[in-house]
Amino acid sequence: MKTVIHTENAPAAIGPYSQALAFDKLVFTSGQLPLDPVTMAFVEGGVKEQAYQSLKNLKAVLEQAGAGTDTVLKTTCFLADMEDFAVFNEVYTEVFGTDAAPARSCVQAARLPKDALVEVEAIAFIK
């Protein structure tokens, strides 16, 4: 049976979707945008700041589900511009490290919701 995951510590969905769904011992997150969960506005700055906020939001959703960044198996990362790949990787490495980093796909999207520079989704196991 699937369980809807919701936390006030991450932005509310801006469409007809859940922040995440859990099934058995797995959690599947929706893409997390760099929105401040209180103001629902983008954090100030560029791709680095947006990457930090997206990953902070992802962490909040994962923790609500009983998972964490240490239990992430796979991420899909969307960048508005692949020229930002190196900067994004710096932030991503701070969160996930390199030794046991999750499997990952990273693609440039023609356009992200609300014209974000970054969006990240994940599949993780629940502790």
UniProtKB/TrEMBL annotation:
Pfam families according to UniProt: Ribonuc_L-PSP
Molecular-function GO terms, alphabetical: deaminase activity
GO (cellular component) term, any one: cytosol
InterPro entries: RidA, RutC-like_sf, YjgF/YER057c/UK114
CDD domains in alphabetical order: YjgF_YER057c_UK114_family
Family, similarity comment: Belongs to the RutC family.
Protein name stated in the entry: RidA family protein
Organism for this UniProt entry: Shewanella pneumatophori
